[in-house]
Amino acid sequence: MQFSDALQRDITETVRFALAEDIGSGDITAQLIPADHTANARIITRENAVICGVNWVNEVFQQIDNSITVTWHIADGDYVTANSVLFELSGPARALLTGERTALNFLQLLSGTATICKHYSDLVAHTDVRLLDTRKTIPGLRTAQKYAVTCGGCHNHRIGLYDAFLIKENHIAACGGIAAAILAARDIAPLKPVEVEVENLTELDIALEGNADIIMLDNFSLEDMREGVTRTAGRAKLEASGNVSTQTLAAIAETGVDFISIGALTKHAQAIDLSMRFV
């Protein structure tokens, strides 16, 4: 996902909501500190990570108090080692403390997403496969996590239900078959990509006859994936899905499929341990 005006608008709204749920009627603990007290703070990572979330952090402190100065020592997508200083803050002490948790929540989650994506992408760097995320994201943070995926070296599948067809088992059953579902999709939105999930080689042949743009091989064996690549011969893009792990990933990539979709890129992300200290 490219950083864009639309993404910045999403950041502004997401941060506004996050601050509202945290601050509520006011940060009563910060009121212990004199209103005119200023401070400097330093944020470090306690572990190795690929960092993502710079613009979310900036937006948090901009919305709280635009007199705060944020000085970054890294950029989105940078790999850092434990105890590295990520950025420094300067401004009213109350405001720094009020924004701390929300800012670090965004940074630790998005960096965790980018870090796991980097780990997966490194495992298939010797192939031409593209690793794709899914819609298994934290509600309200879809675009944020999908941006983090790209910072970690992986790629975005469809963003939501509106930008591409993904015809799965239940859609096929309701439409009366794979061919009928593809025809209906072409009629509804002729310019949208059409992807179909298939469960065996016979269904693959039907999807190819129907001229699907992308065909998802759901829980195929490695042998059937290789056969599917041979049968397809470039007539459609092939996406492997199901039972993908760090142990199976390289072997799947080596079958010659074009894409591998992995829900774990977003739903299994573990937040990076970060710390803010006044200096």
From TrEMBL:
What CDD domains does the annotation carry? QPRTase
- Can you tell which superkingdom this protein's organism belongs to? Bacteria
- Lineage, broadest ranks: Bacteria, Pseudomonadati, Pseudomonadota, Gammaproteobacteria, Cellvibrionales
- List each copy of the Quinolinate phosphoribosyl transferase N-terminal domain by range: 27-111
The record's annotation in NCBIfam families points to: nadC (TIGR00078)
Q: Which PANTHER family match?
A: NICOTINATE-NUCLEOTIDE PYROPHOSPHORYLASE [CARBOXYLATING] (PTHR32179)
Q: Which InterPro entries match?
A: Aldolase_TIM (IPR013785), NadC (IPR004393), NadC/ModD (IPR027277), Nicotinate_pribotase-like_C (IPR036068), Quinolinate_PRibosylTase_N_sf (IPR037128), Quinolinate_PRibosylTrfase_C (IPR002638), Quinolinate_PRibosylTrfase_N (IPR022412)
- EC number(s) on file: 2.4.2.19
Xref: Pfam families: QRPTase_C, QRPTase_N
Q: State the organism of origin.
A: Zhongshania marina
What is the role of this chain? Involved in the catabolism of quinolinic acid (QA).
Sequence ranges assigned to domain Quinolinate phosphoribosyl transferase C-terminal in this UniProt record: 114-277
The record's family statement is: Belongs to the NadC/ModD family.
Which N-terminal residues, if any, form the signal peptide? none
Q: In which pathway does it act?
A: Cofactor biosynthesis; NAD(+) biosynthesis; nicotinate D-ribonucleotide from quinolinate: step 1/1
Protein name, entry field: nicotinate-nucleotide diphosphorylase (carboxylating)
* EC top class, as a word: transferase
Keyword list (alphabetical) reads:
Glycosyltransferase, Pyridine nucleotide biosynthesis, Transferase
